[in-house]
# Entry
Amino acid sequence: MVDVGTRVAESAPDQVTTPAGGPDVVGRWCLRVGIVLLALQGAFFVVLSVVLYQRFTLSIDFGIFNQAWSQIGSGHLDPTSTINGFPYVKSHFELLMWPLALLYPIFHSALVLLLLQDAALMVTGMVVLLWVSALLVRRGAAPGWTMAVTAGTVLLLLINPIVYATASEDFHFEPLAMCFVVLAAYDLWSGRTTRMWVWAGLCLLCGDIGGLYLVGLGLTGIVAARGSRYRALVLLAVGGAWVALVSGLGANLGSDVSTGYAYLAARTVLPNGARGLLLVAEGAVGHPSRAWNILWPRWGEMFRYVESGGGIGILTPWGFGVPLVVLGASGLQVNGIFLSVRFQNVVVVPFVTFGTAWLVVWIATRWRAWPAAVLAAVVGLLSLVAGGAEAVQQLPTAFSLNATAGIVPADKAAALRQALDAVPPGAETIVSVPIIGRFAQRRYVYTAIDPALHSSPPLPVHGATVAVVIDETDAPQLLPPAVADQLRAELVARGAHVVVDRDGVLAIVWHPPPGTRQLPLP
# Structure
């Protein structure tokens, strides 16, 4: 087995040779301790995912991915997301779902998706730590600085509330894309060109956001990667071309580009494809006040993501690119919804964290005199205070950002398990939004939403069985009790059977008469 410390040394060109027992030995020891601590954090993510899965604390986003994963894995290679109302591939062009679906015939349980997300979060932290360790070796940092910077980096990664919130918010491709772009960034920094393109390709397979991440990495590389600026320019071009391609194919419906950014071009709706993106760019450059008027009131929310990684790191060459692009895209969206969901911006964390460590090391090793050491210590301490302050504020609520604003109680989870077992596998299913995730492994699944809140045509009836599962207590309650009671009465009057009615869970199974084509909601 190759020693991790050896890998750090090999990845750091132009490193300073140190005597036995010197900084390199300290660096290896610090790296090993940090890896163990981050592995324990990863184990916590796994436990959290198992609890969320067993307690049915999985909502609409998990339902979208669960349906696509199971349908592709069952041989339906171009599935329609009945939750969204359009083909799954047109949501974000997340092509990586197809190879991931090869796991479905083996495991069947969509818990696999959550575990992959946990692995991506853990590996990202480990790569950041490996990157910082390689930086310390390259700069020839003294043992004291090696211990201090490594400890500070590990602490920022361990207490970051954005990471924990992401682990509790269903499954998304953002954490996977984050892992790939951080691996690509590390290889760009260390000069491993071939492997960097492998990670970049995997990042693109995570959808339109993967292209956005590569644009940010390209910006960083142009500024920071001396000797690799041509590669960085290619990364930027590839990322931009990918975003334009996805938009041109109309495969970014989930990004709300056509209406969410149309105001920048003084429009209400943008044309599809690259032309719409060009209109946005022209409007933002030609009339910067439009962007400023949206961004200024939101700077505090954007700064929270930066603060969680130490804050100052976003001002460094290796820390600014991806966070700038991602926070800019989230902040410019007209209603700000992308800023309110943590997983959407979690990629800010590793880059700002590394940038913070980079700045402390740069100050401490560039000037050897004691004033530089004092300045580096002050910067590092202030960064830890910033990250700690954000953790104190946000960690208590980081695990309540899921759909039910808390983990479903055990008695209700048991009722939901009973309902899931009572619904035939091939049945069309209509489920409340907060608990739809586990029920989505079927071809036809729909959300139960109050028609007064969301006007929609009657639901189509497919096949011989329709099941309705209603969460009667948890927020967000998109089907009020009065509407749920009316739906229940109408279905029972048509011959439906109530199979579960306890602990706030109502499940009804209906066998519609032959020829029935739609189910009108109350």
Q: What stands out?
A: The longest strand covers residues 466-471.
